Amino acid sequence: MRYSALKIFTEGLTGNKGWKPVWREPDPKPEYDIVIVGGGGHGLATAYYLSNKFGVKNVAVVEKGWLGSGNVGRNTTIIRSNYLLEGNQPFYEMSLKLWEGLEQDFNYNAMVSQRGILNLIHSDPQRDAFVRRGNGMHLSGADAVILDRDGIREKCPFLDFDNARFPIQGAIWQPRGGTVRHDAVAWGYARGADAQGVDIIQNCEVTGFQIENGVCNGVETSRGAIRAKKVAVCVAGSSSRVMAQAGMRLPIESHVLQAFVTEGLKPTIPGVITFGAGHFYVSQSDKGGLVFGGDLDGYNTYAQRGNLPVVEDVCEGGMAIIPMIGRARLLRMWGGIVDMSMDGSPFIDKTHIDGLYFNGGWCYGGFKATPASGFCYAHLLAKDEPHPVATHYRLDRFRRGAPIDEKGQGAQPNLH
Amino acid sequence: MIINHPLLGPRDSAEFVYKGDATLIDRPDGMADGVEDAFHDYAYMRDNPAGEHRELWYHEQGDRSWLVVTRDTLTHDISKVELARDVARAMGRSR
Q: Quick one: which of A250, A304, A182 has its CA closest to B44?
């Protein structure tokens, strides 16, 4: 069924009786060409691009919980391509371009809203760093504008420009950045993959891998064994637990990132604002809630909840730079478990086990990467070679002395 | 989280800085042959378990001691707190 304004109109006149479930609930078949482990944003995007762009349709996605129950449902929905390094920026710019065409591509309203992202500058060295980053963004074809105080005041008059500790000197502005309705991304990809015959199997936990003589031939699941020519793991947040079943250790720690949303307000915040110096960022959802967050809690955890010191830190950051935020009441807060890698950058790679592939290590930035991650993973799975923009995301990059460390923090995952 | 410091008693975890897996105490011998793999694993690879985890915390806002905290990463329950110095010495380190 193709969605359109006409379809909504005619359904409205006929009692909305024509809507159908948008994906099937199949039982697992004994064998597939490719089994994708993890039915979140990246796994479903991978299935979508495999079946729609690379012609591989005998695919299953197995998901422990329900579709989209992981971080695609727990993030703060921001899209942007404002990275510096050569290994990252072309990948994220490709992702932003895919976001821009996504709704037309998969015929689903993902509410892609490009209202821009503003990164505040508080000192001369920070301005130098952001100018350099902006030039790096231009090299990949992305957009970046350095704003002065008046330029920011036009967009965001409510900021505390003369904050005693972090007075605002300027900002780097990416007009094409913005937000997307996160759940709709998972649903749209699932619908598009299902339409091409991909089996999306929910409530099906992978309990082991069938590995014989260094070759992975399938997975053991809570719903029986499934053979596969290739197994593609895509479970960021739980990567270490799942890959341990294949005997692998990863350069990853699991950390919790908290997020917050206020009651719905009239339109007040024009795009995404990041106050990096104060560990705070905010945007406003289409429902009106202010969606904001800050730093990791900073210790290894698999509990999907954080602790109060970070709640205090985030709220202090918000009050410091946007004093009016104190008038809004906090509605909900939650935590998501993220794969923090040793250099803050992800992995899309084969493993040393033939037929076993790995996608993970997305740190706190996996949502914006969803389309490109799916596309590049599908490319790797279909052609057995990395997509040109994802060639740096190798598992052996630390051994080769080639980390992609945007912040220059070294092998300390909670600081990236 | 409250960390029961062996010398100072119960302290708020916000006073501490988190380092990571306590295996970082066990630095490989840099003079041994073929030590590159051992150092790669030491610096970059982690077990990252779901469940009991021994980890290093530094009491930066306190007495600046390093602690080895045994904590459950699923529940945040802390079952044991030791001075990292004692742990290192028990492993045969001189300091």
A: A250
